[in-house]
Structures are given as C-alpha cells and as structure tokens.
C-alpha cells in the first residue's frame, strides 16, 4: 500500500504539460508513492501506466479541493505556462508544490511552500518529491499563507494603485 500521494492536475495532458514526466516518475518512484492524475480523458488512458491513478476532468471545486488536500505534494511539470493557477489551488489547500522553472510558476512559490526545479531534471524532481513526502518540510499553514498573497481582490487593488501612481494620482 502506498504511503505518499503525488498529484498532478491538467485539463489538457500532453508533453507541454508534463504527461511524460509523470510516466517517468512512475518508473523512478517506489511503491510507497502513488501518482494521481486529474484530467486524464479516455483518449489518454492507454498511454498512462496502470499504476498511475487516472481521474477524469472535473470542474467540481469541492472534489478538486479534496484531491489537493489529500496529496502530500502537488507536481506541476509544465514546460509552457504563464501563471498556472493550479499551483495556487494546491497551496490554498495546504499542499506544497514542485514545478519546473518556467513561465510564472517560480513566482508563485517561496521558501516555505515548495520548490522549482529545472525543466526535465528528473533526478532533482524525484529528490524533491521524496524530501517533501518523507520529511514534511512544508507546513500546511505556510502553503495557505502563500496562496493568500494571490487573493484576487488584493491583487486587483495593487494593480489599480500602480496605475494610479503611474498617472500621478493619489492611491487609496
């Protein structure tokens, strides 16, 4: 029986989103690790090893929150992205994130919420997954605190204040 749950979520699993990375992780991680992929449709099922749990795409926020919360680590091996909100969703559920150093992924994490690794560095990725799972290095509270820094209302106000300052107006 697996001790650790490694979660991946995408609504378009392909190489760009790191499907091949999870297939490689399945080979490298031992039986103590269970990989769960959300968003794997029937067209991809045959490409994904049987040992990886495949959950169909869902828009049910409560179901997604339960999955994020159950995971020991959320892995987002995206090779192309601008600001993947799945990272924030995982953090908001108290789950640390490991992602590739691409797009806006790195900006979402701090030293208390996860790791960025170089794209396709499988050795470091496996080391970080094992480190998080076996040592519990990130607290649920720290992850949630980091996610709160991306609250849409706070960010909206920051943008308005920035625009006002650029226009020479007083900010409120």
- What's the CATH topology label? Rossmann fold
CATH arch. level architecture? 3-Layer(aba) Sandwich
Name the helicity range. Answer: 25-40%
Principal-axes shape call: globular
- As a whole number of angstroms, the C-alpha radius of gyration is 17 Å
Would you report the number of β strands? 6
Mean pLDDT: 91
- SSE series: EHEEHEHEEHHH
> Going across the major beta sheet, what is the strand order?
3-2-1-4-5-6
CATH class: Alpha Beta
Q: Describe the sheet with the most strands.
A: 6 strands, parallel
Proportion of residues in β-strands: 15-25%
GO molecular function, one term: glycosyltransferase activity
Protein name: Glycosyltransferase
Pfam families: Glycos_transf_1
InterPro entries: Glyco_trans_1
Describe this structure in words.
It contains 6 helices and 6 strands, in the order E-H-E-E-H-E-H-E-E-H-H-H. With 172 residues, the chain is α/β, with parallel strands linked by helices. The protein has one domain (4-166): Rossmann fold (3-Layer(aba) Sandwich), CATH 3.40.50. The protein has a 6-stranded parallel sheet, with helices on both faces. The longest helix has 15 residues, at 152-166. The protein starts with a strand and ends in a 6-residue tail after the last helix. The model has no long low-confidence stretch (mean pLDDT 91). It comes from Sporofaciens musculi. Pfam families: Glycos_transf_1. Residues 12-149 form the Glycosyl transferase family domain. InterPro entries: Glyco_trans_1 (IPR001296). GO terms for molecular function: glycosyltransferase activity.
